[in-house]
Amino acid sequence: MHSAAAAVAAPYVLSSVAWGQPAPSERIALGMIGLGNMGGGHLHSLVNNRDFQIVALSDVRRWKREEARQKVEEAYAAERTAGTFKGVDDYNEFERVLERDDIDAVLIAVPDHWHAIVAIAACRAGKDVYCEKPLSLTIREAGEMVKAARRYGRVFQTGSQQRSSANFRKACELVRSGRIGRLLTVNVGIGEPSQEKCLPAEPIPDGFDWDRWLGPTPWYPHNAERCSGNYSGGWRLVRDYSGGMMTDWGAHHFDIAQWAMGMDGSGPIEIIPPNVAETKTLTYKYASGVSMYHGGANGILFTGTDGRIEVNRGYFQTWPEEIGTTPLGPNDVHLYESPGHHQDWVNCIRNRRRPICDVAIGASSATVCHLGNIAWWLGRTLKWDPKQRVILGDEAASRWLDRPKRAPWRL
Amino acid sequence: MKPLAANLLIVLFLAAAPGLLSASQDTDELVAKLISPSETDHRGAGELQLAYARLLDRLVAGLGDDDLANRAATRRTLESICLRAGRPGAEQERECLCLAIVVRLGPTTPHAARVWLLKQIQYLGRHESVPALTLLLQDRNPQIRELARRALQVNPAQGAAIALRRALDKTKVPRERAALVNAIGARRDSAAVTQLIELSRGKDSTLATAAVKALGDIGGSTASQALEGLRHDSREPMRTVAATALIRIADELLDGGQRRHAADIYSALLENSEPVVVRMGALRGLAGARQMQALPVLLSVLADNDQPYTLRAVAAQATERIPGTAATSTLTAMLDFLSPVGQVILIDVLAERGDITAQSALLRMLDSFESTVRVAALQALTKLGRHDAVFQVAQIAAGATDDEQETARRTLARMRGSRIEHALLAHLAGSLPEVRVELVRALAARRYREAVPALLEQVRDEDARVRVAALEALGQLADQSTAPALVRLLLTAEAGRVRKAAESAVVATCLRCPDAEQKVAPLLAAWEEAAPDARVTLVGVLGRVGGPAALDAIRSAHASGDDKLVNAAVRALAKSEDISVLADLRDIAQHSDKQAHRVLALRGFVRLLDLPSERTADESFELYEAALSLARRPEELRLVLGGLAKIATADALKTAQELRATPELKPEAELAIVSIARLIHTQYHQLASSAVEAVLEQPGNEMVADQAREAQELIRAAAGCIVNWEVTGPYYAADQNWEYVFDHAFAPELSAVEVEWQPLPATNAERPWVFDLRQFDKGYERCVYLRTIIRSAADRSARLEIGSDDGVKAWLNGTLVHENRIARGHTPLEDHVAVELRAGKNLLLLKVVQIQGDWGFSAAIRPPE
């Protein structure tokens, strides 16, 4: 975990003499698992990144694999001419990617219900990991992912890329340096939880491994909406596969809130669902006395005794204005400066440091999101022990900390 | 609570008797009562069971309804009842509800209803649900068997474990056997160990692997021994599966405080023959289990250059589990015996430990022959460095280059501790000049305002580098109370770098004054006692600070009659960026008896005219006309023509055409004509076109001809181009890439949704139909919508031309007429589409998608091809 004072400078580059193996000049052999909306976006970016050589692709949709393979081959056309292109292979089964000894790292951009299984298997196979956010589908999965990354010595970047944005870092540094005085409340503007959906059976498209798409989740007949990556619907809004906007956006905005509160690796102690008692909105209570509310902000709004800071993508405002314009001093809190989410991962693969959004950070942020969902779904207040990671005094609610997996899948 | 059979009898009995809830109640009323605390908290089991039974009888059909909306609504209703019954302290309600559910899980219940009821039991069921779930493990439908298995896996009753073990013996389907093994493992059912050991030796590799992993879940000595045996007796991949299962067992033992047992397992897995990931887990575990005693093993791996780099890194990082200064001391002592690679790894680890006792070792590493080691040590000192490290870091900052120097400077700026600044100040005395420069820079970077007095002393240093650094630091730190001293320094500084630094420091200090009227007070105060030469300097500084008081002082200097002062004042006015001096400059240019002043003033006047302003083009033209009247020499006229060329009015074009008649000005005037024509051709197409053609008839030189031809082409090409647009956006979705953005119908595509439109400002003065959308929004993976009205005198065919970076869609009068899903740079008007225009108004809507990099578009309507 990064302590507040880590303030590491821009990464240095080891000379090849000092470095030995692997030389930083070597390209990282990358396998990409999941080639849908997010995976396609990463592919678009990484295929032109000289730090990586994409050598394997995996998706349960044949046409996605073919599109991706074509894109990679086009991008590497010059290397093919030069005779240095060793080819890219595509697989229906992600296990085939992990079996390959020549792959250093994997980028996991499958739907949420697959994150933990693939990521833990990747750690066990000795691959460094970039896993899309939210880190996991359940709270237990998140904890197991941390254990696996540590146990097998992996560099594990969670895809909550707002941590690599200067605006968000600055907001957190200002809050943690006391520029708005004592922090009182945090408002987080995101959407609502996923729901159960009743959807009709539809024919399975040719080339689509439906059973594998479902993976560890309960079996249902195919339906295009159930597995669509469409943001206004699709699997993100179905409870079997995702926590909805609470986890999808929460993994960004709750993540920043946690960062600003210095709560990485920890979390709230009480979660109150909407419309319970005097609370109209989902509320998190922290041991520090800070209350965090769902809604009421353009992004994240921090309110302290001496001012406010609101931050979102492309937006940063403080009240009063001087809070944002007065430079930080040496004894203020300087947080880890990431050179970009992909680049930070690359640097850490090479120097084995923990990246800006290390798995443990992703886990605690995802846990905040999941706890909000559980309280929301159950309609009752939860008491949470952030150290032991258990719900206190509510056996039925505790069963929502994890979900049994459909065979043969397990963590 | 009574066992299942007895409870069923109660249900049957109560069903025939008048109960809490009358038969006439509708379902909504029943639901309301069952989720109401006042209704359920004090009711007996019999009443509750009857109520739940009655409710479920009404809901089951809905749960299996072909009408999916009704099915979903019924599901939500049942779930709300279940969630309510599962709350803490409502055991009776929970059990009654489960009993009511389990008797409806049989095959006579619609399949979809069974699925949903089983989902509820998964979260709600305990001992009362086990018998029914056990039966369902043998159901004909595999989905039901799977859901029953899931429900049993998380059911806390001991009977659930027994049911799963028995089912494992009976089930023949391989995938379901693996599922049962997984469930047993997840329950950590130690009674199943023997059964699992047997399966782990079986021929079915999937089942054997599942069994080995389950043994890892369960742990205990029997499981450990079995796994140890498998690790030795089996082949890959089973060996590694067994080894990783053992690591997990050891981790659990360690978490449970059984350090010795855990350490034994870890130690056995450290052999070089084990896979690297297994050794990593073992090393990390050993650190937790053996603490200080593990350090020799960890350090021997770290020091072994033949070991994989990632393993060496893990060995070092595992020391984070061994807290305390004793461990830090061992680690720092090891530093000297490592290769540079090992040193860098260990330095990182020491930085993360945060133990300041490592500082002296880090300082030692600053003497390494390998720069990467020195840089790593400098970075670590950012966190661990204290005041006594300051001097050594400053020496490196003074002597190093490139990354190392930058890192040292950053370290000095960021080191934490209350005594850092005192150390920086203390070392100012007696250090070499180049070190003093770095100390001064660090004080400025740390914004240590208390350093101002010491910096004022450094300003008098013998070494000019130190004086410059100190003045630059004062420029960053000093407030206006220091300005008088800085002004004095300025007035005595030697010419060159030092005076420039002093002048900048004075300007910065004055500008920092929050009271606008007081900004120049220190300068005006010095004015009174300043010698004539010093006043000349002050006039220059007053000009840079600006403001009404400064301008008044400069004007009075101009009126003084002192040649040097007048000269300085003219120069200050000519450099000013304050629009209010336009009149002064015009006056000097018109009336000064010194040509040099007239020229300076005219240049300043024209330069000011060229700055962004809120003037209209016509107002600017009037001022340029005035400038032309003041220009006396050809070079001055050329200067004015250069500015006039940017004025987009027909009058400006006419003036340039008139000047073309002056032979000395012909090329410049023609360039101005061409330039103005490019700016106005969308408004005055014919005028611009004729002007350019006239230039082309007899161009002054080849460059003019080239530019005129380009302009002619542009003007021709611009016919039909659309320059007036309204824009809305950007539209995007978190975590969605451009393909989603391209496909998704955002609000402007939906006629029912109102959006806010605003005029799109021109972004390209020469080609106003070419728009750079990056000036509108800098983000990636998004889109904007643009709309415009095209008027047509009659129904007619036309050609819509669109260029875009990146993808684009176009709708004409609500009909999609073009889409191009593409990542590309902007080639104006690249895509051609045949369209039909209606008589009157036609609404053209564009969606332009941004992937990354540049973002823009262009469009035109022209006759059909």
Please describe what this structure looks like.
Chain A is of the alpha/beta class and 411 residues long. Chain A has helices at 16-19, 37-46, 62-75, 77-82, 94-99, 112-124, 139-151, 166-176, 210-214, 224-227, 245-248, 250-261, 322-325, 341-351, 359-378, 395-398, and strands spanning 28-33, 52-58, 89-91, 105-108, 128-131, 156-158, 183-188, 270-272, 283-285, 291-294, 300-304, 307-312, 315-319, 382-385, 390-391. Chain A has a 9-stranded mixed sheet. Chain A has a 6-stranded parallel sheet with strand order 3-2-1-4-5-6, sandwiched between helices. Chain B is of the alpha+beta class and 865 residues long. A 6-stranded antiparallel sheet of chain B has the order 2-1-4-9-6-7. In chain B, helix 15 runs antiparallel to helix 16 (259-268), helix 19 runs parallel beside helix 21 and helix 40 (650-659) packs antiparallel against helix 41 (666-680). Residues 1-19 of chain B have low confidence and may be disordered. Chains A and B meet through helix 1, helix 2, helix 7 and helix 16 of A and helix 5, helix 7, helix 9, helix 11 and helix 13 of B.
Key terms:
heterodimer, A: 411 residues, alpha/beta, nine-stranded mixed sheet, six-stranded parallel sheet, 16 helices, B: 865 residues, six-stranded antiparallel sheet, four-stranded antiparallel sheet, extended
